[in-house]
Structure formats: C-alpha cells, structure tokens
Design brief:
This protein is of the alpha/beta class and about 375 residues long. The protein has 2 domains: about 280 residues, Rossmann fold (3-Layer(aba) Sandwich); about 80 residues, no CATH class. About 45% of the residues lie in helices and about 15% in strands. It is built from 17 helices and 11 strands. The strands form 2 sheets. A 9-stranded mixed β-sheet has the order 1-2-3-4-5-6-7-8-11, sandwiched between helices. Strands 9-10 form a two-stranded antiparallel sheet. Strand 9 and strand 10 form a beta hairpin. It is globular, with a radius of gyration of 21 Å.
Length: about 375
C-alpha cells in the first residue's frame, strides 16, 4: 500500500527532466496548494518566485515557533499529515527546486468565496497552475454547496481571472490542476479563459472534483478542452460523484474507507502512476444515485433555501471551522442544537421535510448497494 510519501522517496533524486511529470506528481502538486504559503510565496502583483525548498524551510520555522499541542499549531495546517509532508518534500531533490509564484488566498464571508491558487515551475518547459480545494472554513464549504443551485460560483470566476493574469506573466505551455473544488476550478478556468490562453493548455488534472451543471459541460469552451482532462476519483468517491462531469474518469485505489478516501494522502501509487481499479464501489453508485434523485426532487429555490438555512444554523452557533467542530464536537453540537431552536417553525419544518426526502431517496435506491442499476 504505497502512498505519496513512498513515491517521494522513490523518485526524490530524479528531476522532472529525467522523469517527466506524471499523475502522482499532480496529486502532490495539488496537495502543496493546501500549505499555508501566505506571506511566503510572492503574489500575482509581486515580482519573482521562491523555491519550494526555501518556502518549506520558512514553514518549518513557523511550526517550530508554536507548541505542537497548541491551537496555533493546529490552525497552521489543513491536514494532520502536513508536517510530515513538508519534511519529506523539503529533502526531495525532485520537488525542493520547484519555483513558486503568484500565490493568492482570498476568503470573503460576505460574498461567500474561498479561493486560493499558486503557480509552480517544475523545471521542464511548462508551468503548472494549481487551484486549492476547499479549506476547513465553513464559508468554503458553503460555496461548494452553492453549486447545487448556482450555475457559477464566485471562485470559478476568480479562477478565470487568475489564469488570464498569470498566463500573461508566464512563458510556455500551461498545465492546470487541483483537488476537490480545485479540480473543478481548473476545468472551469480552462473552459472559459480566452482562446489565446486556452491554446497554451496541454493538460488538466482533476482529482476527485465535483462536476457542473449540464449547460457548462455542453459549452463550446468545455468541449474545446475536454480531451485534455485527466479526471481521477477514489473507488468509494462521494465528492467526485456530484453533478455532471462531461468526461470519463479513472478510478484509484485508496487505503481509507468512505469519505476519508477523498484525502489524497490515502491514494495508492506504483512507480510513476496511481493504482487503478476497474470501477467505483456500489456504495459510491448508491450515493451518486441518491444525491441526484434527491436534488432532482428539489427546485432551485428549495435547494437554495435549504442550504441557506443549514448555513444559517452553523453561523448562529459560532462554530467557525471544521477543525473547531472536530476538536470540540460535543460543545459545537450543543451550540448547533441551541441555534436550531432560534429558527422559526416554518423553516425548521422545511429543513426536516427536506432531510426526510433525502432518507426516502436513499431507501428507494438501497438495492444499488447490492446490484448496480443500469441507469446509474
């Protein structure tokens, strides 16, 4: 069960000229985009770049400056594997000389947008534009849920603007990629950027990303870059089953179960590739079928009302992030329950009825767990 750490050990002495970019590298570059690079990597309006080696050295010093059991340390990283990830990358000749530039990290609770991206020169003739997926903030998750009732979300528009701006500063071919929402942003940016920029794109890597409204995948821009998309999902994918993708995907073996397979650290590798399996599990088909049927039972206004109501409950509860929910789940749950008591009876009834419809949809598709339906 080899993973990203094993791959970095195997290929750590080979640069990207000796061993060209491959799908495992793009999983690693996607994971790098989650690192707290604020104030370390030059932004889109700044000149120059910084080596990954120096950026990671700075991060290591930042981590050493705070107690490992303190809140500041926990808030510094998105994933529990990040400290080890930073350490192995810093000592890897393959990655430590990559040059980083154009880092942006923008969170706006009013506009409900969480957008982050970075450009990475790997030493070949191309530059990789990597979009970060959803962070641990609830506003980031809220923006993802908004995809259920909005054809376009703010981060997608930000992604197009970012790509256009950085493309004007970068020479040579462009490779786009990202994990989760980051993969979605990569595909959207490639679809709706100018034709001049679009012609420079040679690859788009999408790792377990949600899809789009059907209108998007039928657009002229999407059809122009469709054959450049390399989409991957783990065998029990949940996120990658949401909405329409308009392209085939490869299924990857994961060492975790259920939703935990969304973590790139759980994806299994061999040599220069990810380990492929034939198809997603029956549980993944079940989730896909159930969610699509449930969403189909709600019109756009009902979807928006439900998501806004749930987000309102979390906002009133003062639970600010997934990390906070995980660290103090009993206290957080108490706050959420008390917050539910503050909403009016009509909204509460609507929430409960909508959740009940989700369970009814699950019940109607329970046989999918035992035998795949032909129309899934």
């Amino acid at each position: 069960m080899a993973n990203l750490f094993d791959y970095i050990s195997w290929r750590g002495d080979l640069d990207f000229i000796q061993s060209p970019l491959n799908p495992v590298d793009y999983v690693i570059l996607s994971q790098i985009s989650y690192l707290p690079l604020d104030g370390i990597v030059p932004g889109p309006d700044e000149e120059g770049s910084i080596s990954l080696h120096l950026a990671l050295k700075t991060l290591i010093k930042m981590a050493q400056a705070v107690p490992k059991n303190g809140e500041s340390y926990k808030q510094l990283f998105t994933f529990r594997e990040d400290p080890e990830f930073i350490s192995v990358l810093e000592s890897s000749n393959r990655f430590r000389n990559c040059q980083l530039l154009g880092f942006v990290n923008h969170v706006d609770t009013e506009r409900e947008v969480q957008f982050s991206a970075v450009c990475i020169y790997t030493g070949d003739d191309s530059c990789s534009v990597i979009f970060r997926g959803t962070d641990t903030s609830f506003v980031g998750w809220k923006e993802d849920f908004n995809m259920a009732f909005r054809e376009v979300i703010p981060s997608q528009l930000e992604a197009v603007k970012y790509l256009e701006k950085m493309a004007a500063m970068i020479n040579g071919p462009l490779r786009l990629g990202g994990h989760s929402k980051g993969g979605n942003l990569a595909v959207y940016a490639a679809s709706f950027c100018s034709k001049k920029v679009q012609k420079r794109i040679i690859d788009i890597f999408s790792n377990d990303a949600p899809g789009f409204y059907e209108k998007i995948v039928k657009s002229e821009g999407f059809l122009a870059i469709k054959n450049l998309i390399h989409a991957y999902v783990p065998q029990s994918s949940v996120v990658g089953m949401i909405l329409e993708h308009g392209t085939d995907y490869s299924v990857i073996k994961s060492s975790e179960i259920g939703l935990m397979q969304h973590s790139l650290f759980s994806w299994e590798v061999k040599h220069n590739d990810l380990i492929h399996v034939e198809e997603v599990t029956l549980s993944s088909y079940f989730i896909k079928k159930t969610l699509r049927e449930w969403l189909g039972s709600l019109d756009i206004e009902q979807r928006e009302r439900f998501i806004e109501a749930i987000y309102g409950i979390f906002s009133t509860s003062n639970v600010k992030s997934i990390h906070e929910l995980e660290r103090s789940w009993i206290i957080s749950l108490g706050r959420i329950i008390r917050s539910m008591g503050t909403i009016n009876m009509s909204t509460r009834k609507f929430i409960l009825n909508t959740i009940a419809e989700l369970f009814r949809s699950a019940g109607r598709n329970i046989d999918t767990l035992f035998k795949k339906k032909n129309n899934v």
